[in-house]
TrEMBL record:
Domain HTH LytTR-type: 366-469
The keyword tRNA-binding belongs to this UniProt entry's keyword annotation: no
Signal peptide (from-to): 1-20
GO molecular-function terms, A-Z: DNA binding; phosphorelay response regulator activity
Transmembrane domains' residue ranges: 157-180, 187-205, 225-242, 249-269, 275-294, 303-320, 326-343
Keyword Glycoprotein: no
PANTHER family hit by this protein: STAGE 0 SPORULATION PROTEIN A HOMOLOG, TRANSCRIPTIONAL REGULATOR-RELATED
Top-level division of the source organism's lineage: Bacteria
Keywords: DNA-binding, Membrane, Signal, Transmembrane, Transmembrane helix
Name the record gives this protein: DNA-binding LytR/AlgR family response regulator
Amino acid sequence: MWRILLFSFFLMGSMSAAHAQDTSWQSCRGMVGQAGPVVSDCRPIAGSIDPQGQEIWVRSIVHSPTDAHVRVLYVAGVASSEAWLNGQRLGANGRPGATAQDEMPGRYQAIFPIRETVWRPGENELVLRLSSFHGGLRFARPMSAVAVLPYPYPPRIAPLAITFLAAGTLLAAAFGFGVIHAMRRTGTSLILAAMAGVATLQAIVESLRTLFDYSYPLHGWRMSAIWVLAAIFAVLLVRYVSSRFLPGAGRLMTLASLGLVPATVLLPGFDVKTIWALILGVALAVVPAAAGVWRRLPGARPSLAYLVLFLALALGLPEWFTDLSYFLLAAALVLPLLMVEVVRLSRDDRGREAALTRAASRPDRLTVASARGVELVPIAEILAVVGADDYVELRLVGGRGLLHAARLDGLASQLPANFLRIHRSVIANLSRVQRLEREGDRWWLHLNEGVPLPVSRSRLPALREALEDVPVAAAA
């Protein structure tokens, strides 16, 4: 297993060289003879080696090494394999076969040592027998690398160390946001905890190929998990940014992400699916972040700048972004948000304490924690209260709107009796009612100003009963 780990680090930087050797392979008819493999009718392979659903024989000419380093054959892909060099068997990974019953699945990554006595001066014939009947999913490039490499090679542990560092940071952030949610029950904290947790899981799954010598049939499950986790992160990102900077359109943006991001499953190749799931999520999140900048909401400008950077790296360096920078950027995104959330909650606590002290002698006012601070709003000027995730929107007379850091359920108990919940996300001031009107199969409550408010069927009887007891409503 340690040899797989060693060469995995090397291949992170030398995969282009391995891919270059893939182009020299030929597809042949073959069989195992007494003196080794017998191949005939060899033809150049246009594209990558693909043993999925079949048994194939492939042949390549490799040159003998010009230095004293020992060489190994590295094979990585969803296939069982058996290899020969100059007719000498190098070894087998599983057992290739002509049918699924004949095949014994091998590992995703295999290393075949090459003895010095096997080499001939000049050109050497390398023959592989491959089969893949247990992969489950079909891959656009089933063999990620087939290459003759020097052994040993100094390990490059930096990428794995960075991934582990990012995973630890994300795990700490997930724990921190989970604690905040347990204390405050805020939806954004729960979303951020989920984002950090999902990114942590993806970092772990990404590292499995390097850390564990798993059987090739599991590779499809691993790649599927990577795409699923990336898609979940993208949807959660859209949900968080929308609830933070454009709460009125949060549900619409989330539905858009749920429609677009899962559609990336139709794209070819898991790397393409994963990168486009992230790109679509970030692109959708840019919209509410830009709206927050236009509305001059705190935190909107740095969030937009970070999302644009996220998007630029994803489009400009997609492979690097998918393999490594995604974790760094995700960690760098959620960790500052954790610190900002802690500071904001502390500031809100101090502001609320001061405001509650001032409001104790003003029962006709509602203490509102908004983006501009804490202010006392006359309850008589509130037309309606509309829920928006962790916030509520107070619709006031004169067309003014004010976001209040409170939950709709908790606010309902603070308002006087003339305020009634008419929808799961709406509380209306009945003293401002003009009329109750039906349009098709939906009911709408019209106030003496502002847009009509939706009325749910389950709350319609209570509203009608309450309107009978409100003289202002009857007069209107």
